[in-house]
């Protein structure tokens, strides 16, 4: 008998939480429900779920506050579900440590795909574990060779500049996750770096020219508009 993954759904609108519960249970997950922020906090501590699906608009506390307090003691994956479409909310949720973000209204397939990715990432320690084992990240024709500091497409070195390489290397280590512009800037250019993302955009345009078949429709590095970039999941 396999042990089911347990998902805590935090959502005050019963019609939505019921919909999510039905969908997740049909896909073989155990589901527990919280309708307020305080219920959520105590259930996270007492039930040790494998994933939290968190609505930001709760009656008692802001969902962002829950992310902030949970992240002080656990790396439990958090998938934010919200009606808010403001980019600043997405950025804030991700910067506070949410693993992913899905905007209402969403379809069953999209939610299930995000849930699977979020749970798999914790289980495997993101892609960094396979990278650590082989020294390489591979997705389709793209390979990042961390030992040689090279990026290859179809086995050919694509000759990135040092900054371009560092951006691709960072995204590869966190593949599947959205990294915010601010996070990337701080990782690469230190905590003092702030202000314009222009340097990042210029580098990304050059990276795409070198690694993507069609830079306008990237298959490896995706733009989350107004938020950041996401590397495709590894093979
Ligand atoms: Ca709500």
What Rg, in angstroms, do the CA atoms define? Answer: 19 Å
Strand content: 15-25%
- Helix and strand sequence: EHEHEHEHEHHEEEEHEHHEE
The CATH homologous superfamily of the largest domain is named Response regulator
Order of strands, widest sheet: 2-1-3-4-5
Residue runs with pLDDT of under 50 for 5 or more positions: none
From the coordinates shown, what is the CATH architecture of the largest domain?
3-Layer(aba) Sandwich
Enter the CATH topology name of the largest domain: Rossmann fold
Q: Please outline the major beta sheet.
A: 5 strands, parallel
Q: Whole-number average pLDDT?
A: 87
Number of domains: 2
Number of strands: 12
Under the CATH scheme, which class of the largest domain? Alpha Beta
Description:
The protein has helices at about 15-25, 35-45, 65-70, 85-95, 110-125, 130-135, 160-175, 180-190, 200-210, and strands spanning about 5-10, 30-35, 50-55, 80, 100-105, 135-140, 140-145, 150-155, 155, 180, 220-225, 230. It is of the alpha/beta class. The chain folds into 2 domains: about 5-125, Rossmann fold (3-Layer(aba) Sandwich); about 125-230, Winged helix-like DNA-binding domain superfamily/Winged helix DNA-binding domain (Arc Repressor Mutant, subunit A). The longest helix has 17 residues, at about 110-125. The mean pLDDT is about 85. Bound molecules: calcium ion (CA).
